[in-house]
Design a protein that fits this description.
Layout: H1 6-9, H2 19-28, E1 34-35, H3 47-57, H4 72-86, E2 96-99, H5 102-113, E3 119-124, H6 129-136, E4 140-145, H7 161-166, E5 167-172, H8 185-198, E6 201-205, E7 231-236, E8 249-253, H9 255-268, H10 274-285, H11 287-311, E9 324-328, H12 335-346, E10 348-349, E11 351-352, E12 363-367, H13 372-393
Parallel strand pairs: 1-10, 3-4, 3-5, 5-6, 6-7
Antiparallel strand pairs: 2-8, 7-8, 9-12, 11-12
The structure holds pyridoxal-5'-phosphate.
The site of pyridoxal-5'-phosphate has 13 residues, from helix 5.
């Protein structure tokens, strides 16, 4: 049988890769499944996007290749959004890269900037596209274990000098998946400064920029002076607009820093469906009338989740952003065994922290992607599993 490459064989299993099939099997067995696994909301996308998609899909020019340029209307909507939301101006044609979901761009970016002999700095637990891109590009990941003690921030002073000297990319994601941590502005200023000194590309993954609560407004990395020299920021339509399956996102940054990504992509894809880009443009232009209402639904779910999981014996802090609770497991219960029992015995799907990398053990992640009642039911079932596993460990 033809053999896959060593790079592919070296990849870990993708945490969400097998879950849809497991879920299908549970449902076929008649289990009442509550899926809090993927960050994939059950809520409707904006009406304007649905309408514009239907309209655009009926226009035959939209069915042609978008190529790297894509739909100019989408690029312009992105720049209007970045200006309104963060106060930063970008050139629509030179400083925006339309993406087929931000995961696509994030993973391809490593091919543009890292190769054998280089290192990328990957916070763990974290989004696995950083690791995938790095390993498929032949570079070496330096796994930095995030710690609750310092707010799940990457402390560059803890990374050996040799690693920093070899590093081509630092991946940062705040608001953070899975820990829900947020980064203070002073921290971001410091990181930008360090990346400038060290000549490291700062990949700032801002997929959750609009999903924040209690008056917190996540910044863009470009609010930091000097970021344009070292940073590329990734944004997604997925979480903000409940458009995960539409596969649409964008990268912004200086034309020079984006050029290698554009070049890689020109050999790999030929652009997202332009009707989807048209719909995304409509959603972005109407963001102000959609986002606040959508976030308030997530806030209600967050509050329900925090209370319910605490009431059932778990410890977690109240997240200021994202759609996740990052919940500590007491008594050294392994997160994979806990998640497996919870799924098999109680039909509740969560992500074990260990599947998200080194620093994730001892935790599991819950996504607020269903109603408060179902979240409460899931927490109750999780409490039963905790009780059984805790008792067994004694
Ligand atoms: N970045 C982070 C941190 C994420 O959690 C996700 C999705 O879960 C993405 C990027 C990718 O989003 P998409 O490819 O749907 O735009």
């Amino acid at each position: 049988m033809p053999r896959p490459s060593a790079r592919v064989l070296a990849l870990p299993d993708y945490p969400l890769g097998k879950l849809p099939e497991r879920k299908r099997q549970l449902i076929a067995r008649g289990v009442d499944v509550i899926d809090l696994g993927a960050g994939d909301a059950d809520l409707a996308p904006p009406d304007v996007a649905v309408r514009r998609l239907a309209e655009a899909a009926a226009m035959s020019p939209m069915s042609r290749y978008g190529f790297g340029v894509g739909l100019v209307e989408y690029r312009q909507a992105v720049t209007r959004f970045m200006l309104r939301r963060f106060g930063i101006a970008f050139d629509a044609m030179r400083e925006v890269v339309p993406l087929i979901g931000s995961k696509e761009g994030i993973s391809h970016l490593a091919l543009a900037y890292a190769e054998e002999g280089n290192t990328t700095i990957i916070p763990e637990p974290g989004y696995l596209a950083y690791l995938g891109g790095t390993q498929l590009g032949g570079a070496e990941p330096y796994r930095y274990a995030l710690k609750a003690g310092n707010g799940f921030l990457v402390d560059l002073d803890e990374i050996p000098r040799e690693v920093l000297n070899q590093a081509r990319i630092l991946y940062l994601n705040y608001p953070n998946n899975p820990t829900a941590a947020i980064a203070p502005m002073s921290y971001l200023e410091d990181v930008v400064q360090r990346c400038r000194e060290l000549d490291i590309l700062l990949v700032y993954d801002n997929a959750y920029s609009e999903m924040a609560f209690d008056g917190y407004t996540p910044p863009s990395i470009f609010e930091v002076d000097g970021a344009r020299d070292v940073a590329i920021e990734f944004h997604s339509m997925s979480k903000t607009f409940n458009m995960t399956g539409w596969r649409c996102g964008w990268a912004v940054g200086s034309a020079d820093l984006l050029a290698p990504l554009v070049r890689v992509k020109s050999f790999i894809d030929t652009g997202a469906f332009m009707a989807v880009q048209a719909a995304a443009a409509a959603a972005l232009d109407d963001a102000e009338s959609f986002v606040a209402g959508n976030v308030s639904v997530f806030k209600e779910r967050r509050d329900a989740a925090v209370t319910a999981f605490r009431d059932n014996g778990f410890a977690c802090s109240t997240p200021m952003a994202t759609m996740y609770l990052w919940i500590a497991l007491p008594g050294n219960i392994p997160s994979a065994a806990f998640a497996e029992s919870l799924m098999e015995e109680e039909g509740v799907i969560v992500l074990p922290g260990s599947s998200l990398g080194a620093g994730g053990e001892g935790f599991f992640r819950v996504s607020f992607v269903t109603s408060p009642d179902r979240i409460r039911e899931a927490a109750l079932r999780a409490g039963k599993v905790l009780g059984r596993m805790g008792a067994a460990a004694q």
